[in-house]
């Protein structure tokens, strides 16, 4: 009786951690969308909201961490249960980083506001952001369903975001070369694009962590990488 | 007799983790210096070495992680010992990220090589990189000595790197505006500067983790932040 009582309290602790991760995920997802909307529309109030939300996200990570450590110390879990908790710590850290990237984008609103973001530039960034939002949303769904197979599928799709980032990078460079007055705005947009591309990387990290939590193994093979924006150079000649 | 034998095996495991973290730190530190040298001198062979070193660093993180989890499961540590192992996991993750940032810088060698990095631009980047290297080296020394006081001192010094990054960001923007032929090279240098600034952030994270490992607490107050480069805009008018 006592033992089943303890077991159930333990299950409650794991459930609590899971719920908190889902909440963090929901907030991080919303922040990313808000940050790009704030930037594109020059909406300082929305940018400020993203910056405040990041404080909530930071506290959530710290709370999950404390809770997870207390659970490990109290319950001394083994194997799958231990992986579950270690995985929770890693996912919380990734979501916290996603929030930081959203905040960084939001902060740039002040920089581009006066200049305004030309519609044709905004479109590419919005598209990239939508793709990252889908990736983040889906990986959070997989977190709830714990399918190693789906986690692996999401992990392999990071390629798409990388390719779109590379194309946006090239496009923004050409706008800068066309007109020096675009340089500051486009530089900030380049960093925002990079932030969004990295949100995709964190979604991929989360997919790998779910795979590990479910199977105890690390996914086979390098994830496909098409980050040629790091080496784009020829178009500047 | 048996119990002291177990205790000593446990100490050996902790010592092993500590040694592996120091090795990771040494490699990450070297990679960062090499990456900037490779970039500034257009040295593709050195860039390739940094990219290969990153694979070693990734494997080291994974190995530390597996080892740490086995240790938690086998030894079921409490309080300070548990913090030690959780802290180890976090530091390994930060060092792995430092390696990624070094690799990202090294990859840009291909992009700027044909153009060459003007001496006056390289100087600012080298200076920033030296500062980050000192920060990283000192935090690794503090990891060995476990002084919460020194960890806190390093954490507060991140400000200096942020200020220098902001100044370099402004400088690079002006070079881009002066001559559109600088745009591609300077864009890559901006990203490299951002990478180095983020290496400073990871050194700060490590300092916070050491503080936590030593005291069980999180350092008081927000760390000073002077990342106004995110909001620099006026100079583009």
TrEMBL record, chains A, B:
BP terms from Gene Ontology: intracellular phosphate ion homeostasis; negative regulation of phosphate metabolic process; phosphate ion transport
Record bears the keyword Transport: yes
Keywords annotated in UniProt: Cytoplasm, Phosphate transport, Transport
Superkingdom classification of source: Bacteria
GO CC annotations on file: cytoplasm
Annotated compartments: Cytoplasm
Domain PhoU: 21-109, 126-209
Location, primary (coarse class): cytoplasm
Family: Belongs to the PhoU family.
Complex and partners: Homodimer.
Function in brief: Plays a role in the regulation of phosphate uptake.
Name of protein: Phosphate-specific transport system accessory protein PhoU
Species this protein is from: Aliirhizobium cellulosilyticum
Lineage, top ranks: Bacteria, Pseudomonadati, Pseudomonadota, Alphaproteobacteria, Hyphomicrobiales
